[in-house]
Amino acid sequence: MKRLLKYAGPYKKDMILGALLVLIETCFELFIPIMIADLIDVGVANHDLSYIYVKGVQMIFCALMALITGLLYAQFAAKAAYGWGAEIRKAEYAKVQQYAFSNLDHFLASSLITRMTTDVTVLQNMVNAGFRPVTRGPSLLVMGILLSFWISPRLAVVFLVCIPVLGVVLFWIVTKVAPMYTRLQGIMDRLNRVVQEGLTAIRAVKAFVRDEYEEEKFGEVNTNLTSSSETTFHYAVLNLPAFQSVMYSAIVLIMWFGGNMILKSNLAVGDLTGFLSYVMQIMNSLMMIANVFLLLTRSLASAHRIAEVLDEDVELTSPKNGIGEVADGRIEFENVSFKYHKDAREYALSGVKLQIPSGQTVGILGGTGASKTTLVQLIPRLYDATEGVVKVAGKDVREYDLHALRDAVGIILQKNVLFFGTVRDNLRWGNPQATDGEIWEACKTACADEFLSCMPEGLDSMLEQGAGNLSGGQKQRLCIARALVGKAKILIFDDSTSAVDTATEKKIREALAARKDVTKIIIAQRITSVMNTDQIVILEDGKVHSTGQHKELLAHDPIYQEIYRSQMRGEQENAIEEHGQWDENRQMPDAQERFLQKDASCVEIKGGFVSEVCERRGE
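RE: above sequence
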């Protein structure tokens, strides 16, 4: 909590002024019981109306000043609480923006949302509701006890019995409730996760008619939160009856002993009245302190969760005096191995050796889980290699300034991410200073101009959250255009045309091929997406199985042959069934492999693959 207070910044003055105003308010309130005692013992006893009026005016003045200082305190406290909360949220959000992918793996998105909203609100409530009693309570307690001893030391002994009893009760409640608050915030994380998943995937829920299942899942975690809250606050509210029991017991004892002292003329009636006023103030101050302890107990749980976000060590940072410019798009992997966690038993990538000359177009193929995405994420330092070195333009990527490196490496991620706002705002993520002409040029290359030109507002068209008003292929084309708007020397396409039809994909490939100065890496599932590249890399179980061009791999590599056969066989058979021949527009690699003509007999190409097709058809 002490560390979080450093984020109060300019609001520290408001906190200090609020504390001073509370002290002034307390002093004015503490003067009133003394005046009451004088009013009774002097004014009433001597039937002196003028003295009574004077004391009455003084009491009214003290009450008004206490009211004014209390209102001023409320203003400064609110400003300090919400300003402090805003600064903490800002610090948390800024810290998350600095996180590497490996840091983000430590937190659920729903948990980060809770830590920036609910947990910060708990701290704000602690300041708003607890700052006054934490300042007022101790001052009332100390001054009240001192003035009570000044009025009657014998009666004040009652406090020496009551305060330890209250302390024991408070200690028991706090130790019981503290771990419950931490558990409560954890359940809040789970509730947010369920809500986030349910709303994000609402279309899938409707499509699969899983409404009742989602309601049951939400009901379960909501009931869990309710039960935990009831248990927590069941113990938290015990402080009120405990304090009232002790307080009224103290009053009964003081009335008993005080009454006997009055009968023996050892105590004046006004003194007993004033003493009882101090008793009430002391007990109220103790109750305030108890409530502050409960607030502090809950806020400490939230403060700990916030501190976890702020204290997370950012695993990827720019080096001092890092290289500020990437010279070209040359890429080298020198015996690179990688695993996501230090204690993981197996490597996701093992012993990768790879060289990609600047301006070359490289295709990457491999089965699911072959670590294709992991490989390319090492280039812009989204992760750091566990072993070995990744070089760009002949320099270790760890020597570059992160902003310079990532500006030079445009990556279209596997999952399309577009934000609420205009198309122009989204595309300018690639280059904030891009002109409309540059944006339209990028859209033309990505074939996004085909649908954007049909939209009434063009680049000013609004995208819904997650671009829900666009199709999958349109989203992919916009993401490609966004990367092309920048001045990247390396472009990475991580299966970014999977939702685009083959004709449009061909146009995009041809337009990208014209960018001779840009290195292009294409991760794809369709073999037609990479068969015309300068180099094809086959990954298997995180290792480079083979590299080469299409013809070489098709002739000698069994994995590539299997991928080729599984994908092209369906295309060939469908074409033969429908047209009696293979259509030349179906993107076969070259003229030698456009092999079937009408009324022709079987032609054996590439190890008998065509013979197998024809034999099954009985030709």
